[in-house]
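Our consortium's second objective concerns turning raw sequence data into structural hypotheses that experimental partners can test. To show how far this objective has progressed, the report includes one record in full. It was chosen at random from the queue rather than selected for favorable results. The single chain below, 345 residues long, was entered without modification.
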Amino acid sequence: MLDFFRRLSSGDESPAGREPDGAPPREISLDGLHRFPIADHMKLHNGFPVVDWPSVERWIGDTVPKNKRAAAREVGERAWLQHFRHALGAPFRIDEGRTALLLSSLERNVAQATLEYMERTLRRIGAVLQGIAQAPEGGKAVLIVLDDEGQYYEYVSHYYPESGEFAFSGGMHIALGFSHFVTIKSDLRQIEPVIAHEMTHGCLAHLPIPAWLNEGIAVNTEHRLAGAGQPLYTPEQMRRKHQRYWGEAEIQEFWSGKSYLRTDDGNMLSYDLARILVEQFAKDWERFRDFVIAANRADAGASAARKHLGLSLGATVLALLEREPGSGWEPNPRTWDGEAEKGGF
């Protein structure tokens, strides 16, 4: 892959194909062929480059042989990352490991440790989620560590609707276009849980699972690999919060994934409820694995739960909340506001 990077950096031997020193490439190619003017298919969002991914996919699909398409995506990924580094300016740089790329202004020893952690984490996720996790095809895992919350929210706001209030986050897996993870600069210990959580999302991206299942698996995997951290509330306090908060309307938001976009306690409680459900279901790993593979966000996994776990999702939540049976707690897509969320917030 290093050869592709060298060709990408050097471009054509003619003056028109070369870039000034330090400037990101305006076009990409593979083996000197199949040229694509990637810079003409980018736009700036708050100063950050965003690629028109469908146009890149059309270039790959129309001109690149099937056996070289993964390499072509990696070339495009690297070009976009160079444009991103150029937009951020010094002291940001791109560091590279065997299976990961890091764009940050971290000290070199911290950056190297972060790359090693990403590579080790990817292997551990595969072992922990055996039969479920799948490493993303093509390219390398990409982590962008921005300097502060201002930069972070200016960039990730591109991936949110134009209006409304949204919950704060410390990291995000962005699956659109060039799949990548983004977080905020901190010491390695604070970054590690974000990497574990968001890389888990990346390894689940091939499955059409509902948001609650996506987030529940990611939280439990994060806790297993990076530790759970210091909780804000005691278990008894959380129990009371759950019992006060959830009703029939709120649980439908949970099944559709919309509750993860809330800016009140509904956001925190959604992550915790998903964690509890996955923790309980995963005790029988073989049945849980089959459930995850069959689950679909269109019905929040209700059909798969009945078939592979032998239970009703609504009845399970009612039992956890110590509530009387009720029909309004089972996932009901007809009541949802728009399409179900994928998760990976």
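The partners drew two points from this record. Residues 1-21 have pLDDT under 50 and may be disordered. The chain has two domains: 2-207, 224-335. Both points have been shared with the crystallography group to help prioritize constructs.
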